[in-house]
Design a protein that fits this description.
Aspartate Aminotransferase, domain 1; EC 5.4.3.8; 15 helices; seven-stranded mixed sheet; single chain; binds pyridoxal-5'-phosphate; Aspartate Aminotransferase, domain 2; binds the ligand N[C@H](C=O)CCC(=O)O; 39% helix
Amino acid sequence: MVTGNSKELFESAKQFIPGGVNSPVRAFKAVGGDPLFINAAEGAYLYDVDDNRYIELINSWGPMILGHANELIEKAVIEAVKNSLSFGAPTAKEGEIAELIVNMVPSVEKVRMVNSGTEATMSAIRVARGYTGKDKIIKIEGCYHGHGDSFLIAAGSGAVTMGTPDSPGVTKGTAKDTLLAPFNRLESIKELIESNPSEIAAIILEPVPGNMGCVLPEPGYLSGLRQICDEENIVLIFDEVMTGFRLAKGGAQELFNVIPDITTLGKIIGGGMPVGAYGGKSEIMDYVSPQGPVYQAGTLSGNPVAMAAGYTMLEYLNENPGIYTQLEEITSFIVQGIQQNLKKLNLSYTINHLGSMFSLFFTEKEVIDFDTAKTSDTKKFGEYFRRMLNQGVYLAPSQFETLFISTAITKELAEAIIQANYEVLNSMH
Ligand SMILES: Cc1ncc(COP(=O)(O)O)c(C=O)c1O
Ligand SMILES: N[C@H](C=O)CCC(=O)O
């Protein structure tokens, strides 16, 4: 594979950008080799600056659920751009997208738009604290909620990939208000509540984590959290930045029928533009300024171009719920194909899968939380990643990320992915 142009651009970028990238995991540091610089993408394909073509299994870390360069979204963006890029004043589209989100996501009665998932989660815990008058939060180990200080403790995604799940720069004062529990362990949550009586404002988690790789909640875990929060006057926050509009049109909360108090959203909600949102019960959201005293603002919040893209995406998903069955079927087909490959090759690595999210973990252990995810052989994953790239399949460059399937993945492409997986695993063992 020729990658000279990417190499050159990376060397140049490193002079002016820390590590040459604007988000750490993109640097390929954990998998070796230099990152590919991307020129264009269409449907299921990504094209780099050396004209190599790849089948896309990241989809901009989730947002591109309909594949790249979707005509409807492109058209909506072009129309919006004609009226100026930003007003910093209310628009009709903001009301329309808010109403659509309220109709689609079961927990959301009112919603505030922001510019990223990070802003959404930072704002959500501030409201939870303002509403309850309590300071501490419980965070689940291995979940990633963006780069807000309160969350860079036992954080998944790029943070664990770079070997910095507890980031320097987070003050001890902030860190002491973030308590940690393993995923899927209600007992541990109960112990934290007992040892911090009347101090916990919120429990925040990814209901189906994708940032330690894809991990599934065990039966009763999410409903158990709901019950504990009700009993203890704790705000339950589902971070559905990844799972929102992906696992179902109402997200993981619809799928598992567990309704949180606050939901954070991102990725798909912007159709590829930088958007986030947090919403929930009116009683809680009415604490947000200017209705209430909890301050949160944004110069570009509700940006008209981003709202046009997001609205078009959500409207399409709302009107075409069959997409979720289609995504589940094609993802199951790929997962089963990989499972058969593993069997043929006498390998017993673990695959976790739900809807259009899946991860192949290079461990023989069942992966149910951060500790078991970390038993994966990351060196082996790096080799797998590089060889898959050579086969023309673009994976997330970290063991601690889920893959995302888009509707652009056809049966033929799914077969090509399974074949590439077989050849690569065979060549490695
Ligand atoms: C579950 C989850 N929450 C929050 C975030 C932060 O979103 P953003 O990167 O848009 O700030 C991400 C992804 O980065 C995420 O996957
Ligand atoms: N896992 C992260 C978000 O979901 C990946 C995005 C990033 O860190 O660049």
